[in-house]
Predict the structure.
Amino acid sequence: MTIASSSPPSRLPTGGAAEASSRTGTPQGVSGEDRGDGRLAALFIAPALLGFLVFLLWPTLRGIYLSFTRFNLLTPAEWVGLDNYVRMVNDPIFWDSLGVTVEYVAINIGVQTVAALAMAVLLQRLTQSAMLRGIVLTPYLMSNVLAGLVWLWILDTQLGIGNEIISGLGVDRIPFLADETWAIPTIALINVWRHVGYTALLLFAGLQAIPNDMYEAARVDGASEWRMFWRITMPLLRPVLAVVLIMTVIGSFQVFDTVAVTTAGGPANATNVLQYYIYGSAFGRFQFGYASAMSVALLVVLSAITILQYRLTRAGRTDLG
């Protein structure tokens, strides 16, 4: 009996694909179509990346460098180390400006958040009219400078229609933007008027992500609207509300244009917010090194507040399973 012997299967050359890849210049496992998609993506990203490098990263790095120098545009920057920061710590106007800014932020964020949340809930529960949402957003389409000028005319002590109405009610005219007590709350409420519609629409978008089945089940169990708001709406809206708070706090600390066109930091520095003081130091007194040091300090403060807010509000996690 003859036993047939079978020859071992022939082995395919293992280096063929790698050799072909090296000859064509294409990385192994990457097709020409993938390379084309990558180049197209890079082409679309390039303008934004260029803008980020030129208008954000480079000015930030340049500002940090200038904060350690004495620079006035007329002479080369002179390295002074930590002198600008020592001056800032001992500058009473800096601390007063920071206190004014914190007061403004507290009023602006407190009123704006409550008003925007109420508007968002009403838009979601009562009506979802696109026209009404457009009307709510209208003040946000106006620039801060224009909004400040409009309210400056409305609240003018002598000729403003707001004070004319107050006078017609038998109440003494109120110097809203010329009194140390009224100035910061008035500026804060002007910015609330302009931004509250945009903030409300952000929260409205978050409310749209909450399943309606939860509200229906709660109604079946006899829950009231108030109880559903605290037990369903607020917990599930928390991540969106946290992000909105982070955005509005950062924006509020950077208030400048409304102050510039209404009070110019007065009366008696009552509205001399930190951004306006930085601007005056740089472009009014040409102390660019000192202004840069205050800007870096503001950057550090905002970074710390943002990180703290993010952790305390658990913005990266949701209760919606």
In short: The two ends are 72 Å apart (CA to CA). Residues 1-18 have pLDDT under 50 and may be disordered. The longest helix spans residues 32-66.
